[in-house]
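Researcher: Please translate sequence to structure tokens.
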Amino acid sequence: MSEVPGGPTRHTTTAPSVRTVAGARRNPNVYGNDYDAPRWLRATAGVSWRLLVVALAVVVIFTAVWHVQLLLIAVFIALVVSAVLRPAVDWLAKGMPRFAATAVALIGGILFFLGLLTWVGYSVASQWDKLSAQFSDGIGQITDFLESGNLPFKVTSDQVAQWIDTGRDWVQTHSGEIASAAASRTGSVVEVFTTLALALFCAVFFLARGTDMWTWFLNQLPARHRETWKTAGGAGWYTFSGYARGTVIIAVTEGGLAFIILTILRVPLSAPLSVLVFIGAFIPLIGGPAAMVVAMLVALAANGVWSAIFVGVGIALIGQFEGHFLQPLIMGRQVKIHPVVIALAVTGGTLLGGLLGAVIAVPLISVCWSIFSRLRTLDPPMDEEEEDEVEEDVEPVDEAVSER
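Model: Translation complete:
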């Protein structure tokens, strides 16, 4: 309390002094918002939640795809057919209407496929009697070889007979389950034919009006985004069509070479086995070895060990010819993926989608990488003079550190 001359007494309150402690006084507008965690932790947290959002989006996409997988399979088959037959349709369209050219190309492709199946069936039917005798002799030779004792283990004919009886008993015991499983597959057969019909229907319009459909889609987008979508779509289709056509050409070449080798070695079922090699070419890294093993087993059972070895060597040489000559020549610059990426893609596709995933994985990765490569902007690489300047700047620092 203080007295002022000529006035009343005033009560004054003195505010307590604020002690400033080093490190304790902070800006209340900033503390607790930006500086409550280290910079590296904030950066890591920002990247982490973004990665979680991306992972969640991927899971949602795969879940949706799983529910409509037959639809996507049909579209994928239609795109493959369109990529393979597009050059023929463009050539035929020079002298006839586009729809007529599409019909001629599709009918020709279907007749080729049916002719291939007929050739395989006729080969099996015409060689069946001879095959039965050859397989009986081959299995007898294999059994004699196993009983000879030249291997670390020994298998007797009694053991082989016991294995056959065990297999027969298992089939008789589980015959009801096998029949019910076969009956449950009836729906799958219907789904397969439905998928093929839908793929054929889509392929007709992709070949006849594909350009018009793509133009219509671009016109539905805002004008500022059309050029980006046009560039991405062109890059993706260029890569996908090149991959599809190149794979078909390589598969036909491998199947023809396999048929020649199997015919020269007089291996039975050379036509079905060459078709198996043709189908295996569509599955990178897995299809070729699987077809080779099957062909070697047939050659072993029919003609003996040396025939199986020669078949394995011949198909392996075909694989080397395909990897070192056909792939660079036919695919060219359209599909350039490192073998490690192919192996990872095929493995991941097989784990996620089985055989279908293994077939789709590589073209899907190729298209995504092609679009990314076309849309991204790379910084110019350093010249040799810039690298020399960097080395000169680093050397004095290293010398100063060593002196300390």
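Researcher: Any highlights?
Model: The radius of gyration is 35 Å.
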